[in-house]
Write a structure and sequence with these properties.
five-stranded antiparallel beta sheet; VWFD domain-containing protein; two-stranded antiparallel sheet; 20% strand; secreted; VWF_type-D; alpha+beta; VWF/SSPO/ZAN-like_Cys-rich_dom
Amino acid sequence: MKVTRHLKSGWTLEQEPLYKTHTVGLYIVVSVPSKGLTLIWDKNTRITIELNPDWRNKVCGLCGNFDSNEMNDLQIIGSAVVSSPLAFGNSWKISTPPCSDVTTEIFPCERHSYCSAWAQRRCMIIKGDTFRDCHLTVDPEPYYQACVQESCSCEFEGKFLGFCTAVAAYAEACGDLDVCMNWRTPDLCPVYCDYYNEQGQCRWHYESCGRILTCGTPNHSNQKLEGEKQLYMYTV
């Protein structure tokens, strides 16, 4: 889908694209060409922001300053760098509506203790045989820890959703380094491809390491998406 606006320049009516949206595999991609900005949403709990290289060293905030230096990502308003995530987050609060500073960090598994054992057990898939071929390429430990916290952060009904998002992040990191992981099953974070099928048009299929054909919609993202090679379609 392309959204445009009409601009009147003298007596000439011009069209300027505001943003475009399209689906790539499991993701919805929203691109804003005039701003050099792309948003990638997995339709669940994860969103990725891609910026044109022209934005390098020209942004700041909760997402960092886009200078390829992870050591200064916790930069607060005023250019100082702190070590506390709480101080970092508090510094970027908006003034309206006013809200008090967060003074105590409560981890999700402490808030939802009933999820902790479940999360640790399920997230072991990242450190287990399923992802064994990727362990020497991408360190699984930080992804395992993130998976546990992400799984605990959801309410009871939604914890499975947080788990799937976290495991997909590790699969995507492996795919970025050309290590393809076939980890989804009908019982584990399944992809219901049949939902997308329309009789006589395009037919969707799931394949962990297949190629993607998007029926005329090119993928302009520079990032390899975990689901990009897993959900593809061909014309019948």
